[in-house]
Specification:
The strands form 5 sheets. Strands 1, 2, 3, 4, 5 and 6 form a 6-stranded antiparallel β-sheet that branches. A 5-stranded antiparallel β-sheet has the order 8-7-11-10-9. A two-stranded antiparallel sheet has the order 12-13. Helix content is about 45%, strand content about 20%. It has about 400 residues and is an alpha+beta fold. The protein contains 8 helices and 17 strands. Among the domains are: about 130 residues, Beta-Lactamase (2-Layer Sandwich); about 55 residues, no CATH class.
Length: about 400
């Protein structure tokens, strides 16, 4: 039973080593595939982040030119008012309410396709002159945020109001305004230019045609001015104070991930402040769209990994079958050898082997040999022709040499 137990142990050891080797190859393949997939994911996010940052920088530059062109006309109109010599609100109303001023405003609009109108408002918030109509319609803007701001602040910069629905055109617009002050700083009126949000949205739609992308224009206080695709309920609303948008704007730009404060969809956002004006551009892409190509690559890698695992399984199964056959043949050979040895032991006291010249080459370890009529121990068998008597075949029989 011991030899059989030894053979069983060897078979079990071979099978175990084969199983461990196959498992190791499969594990290495799976780990390598997982690392490759994770690396591709990081690489894809980095590429999308870089693309969005570049796009945000380009859009910020384009937006500042658009706003700047309107602001230059507003400033030119303000200088015209000051050059007219007005010193009090009544003079402002009389001198700025003429048809000549109306034509001046209309001429300035010819070079501003992004602007809808330009107007002059007095210190009570009523329109004094207006590029869209003559005679001037009665419009009161005293409830607008830009009027409240200029009534309480005297500075020479531009103020960009929040988005509102224009009373004349009934569309979403933003106001780019400047204050007109008298010689002693008294509030005389306001120069106001109206820009439709549709202008920005149409431009943003062209540059963000890729699925899942969105472009937004904000004031730096977090108020959403324009966006493509538009989310109607968020126009004019402020971002949540929990958003990382504020930190990125304060830091001069950057990238962050949002859970979806606008639109309710998680996105990767790149923010770029607009120079000279209190505005900022945000370019975002949904995580699903950003990782779409990575998912396709991951599927291909997964399929390849699965095929490799199946191939390893087939290979090691074939090796296992081959090992079993070899072990079976080895076992059969051992059994045959044992049977031969048993036959040799039981059939005679001893046996020998000869070469092609009929010389003894091997004598078995027989138990006894007759010597002088007595039974004696036979010499121990060995494959040494020199230690054995040599015979040759003669016509009279075998003779010693």
């Amino acid at each position: 039973m011991k030899p059989r137990d030894g053979r069983t142990s060897r078979r079990f050891g071979s099978s175990q080593r084969l199983f461990l080797g196959g498992s190791f190859c499969v594990a290495v393949t799976i780990i390598a595939a997982c690392l490759a997939v994770w690396d591709l994911r990081d690489e894809r996010i980095a590429d999308e982040t870089k693309d969005m940052t570049n796009l945000a920088v380009a859009l910020a530059e384009q937006t500042v030119r658009t706003v700047q062109a309107v602001d230059l006309v507003v400033e030119e109109t303000r200088q015209m008012v000051l050059a007219s010599g007005v010193t009090d609100p009544d003079q402002f109303r009389r001198r700025m309410g003429t048809e000549e001023i109306y034509r001046f405003l209309v001429d300035r609009m010819h070079s501003l396709p992004q602007a809808n109108s330009i107007s002059l408002l007095d210190n009570a918030g009523k329109i004094v002159n207006f590029s869209l109509a003559w005679p001037i319609p009665a419009v009161d803007a005293s409830d607008r945020d830009f009027f409240v701001y200029w009534r309480e602040h005297n500075d020479s910069g531009a103020f960009i109001g929040g988005p509102v629905v224009a009373r004349v055109s009934d569309s979403w617009v933003i106001m780019i305004t400047r204050r007109v002050s008298g010689p002693r700083g008294e509030f005389l009126g306001i120069v106001n230019s109206v820009v439709k949000l549709q202008y920005f949205e149409d431009f943003y739609r062209v540059v963000s045609a890729e699925e899942g992308k969105a472009v937004s224009l904000f004031r730096r206080d977090g108020t959403l001015l324009a966006r493509y695709p538009r989310v109607e309920k968020m126009i004019g609303e402020k971002l949540s104070t929990e958003s990382a948008w504020y930190d990125r704007v304060a830091a001069g730009g950057g990238t962050y991930r949002t859970p979806g404060y606008i639109g309710g969809v998680p996105r990767i956002i790149s923010v770029q402040p607009i120079r000279e004006y209190p505005l900022a551009i945000a370019v975002g892409i949904t995580e699903e769209a950003a990782l779409a190509r990575w998912r396709r690559q991951s599927i291909f890698i997964g399929i390849g990994t699965l095929c490799a695992i199946i191939g390893f399984a087939i290979l090691f199964r074939a090796l296992a079958v081959q090992f079993r056959k070899l072990e079976q043949r080895s076992s059969e050979l051992e059994q045959s050898e044992a049977r031969f040895r048993g036959y040799a032991v039981t059939s005679s006291d001893w046996f020998w082997e000869t070469d092609e010249e009929h010389r003894h080459t091997y004598v078995s370890r027989g138990r006894y040999r007759k010597r002088g009529g007595q039974m004696a121990r036979a010499p121990r068998g060995a494959r040494s022709p020199r230690a054995l008597p040599k015979f040759r075949l003669h016509e009279k029989g075998w003779i010693a040499t």
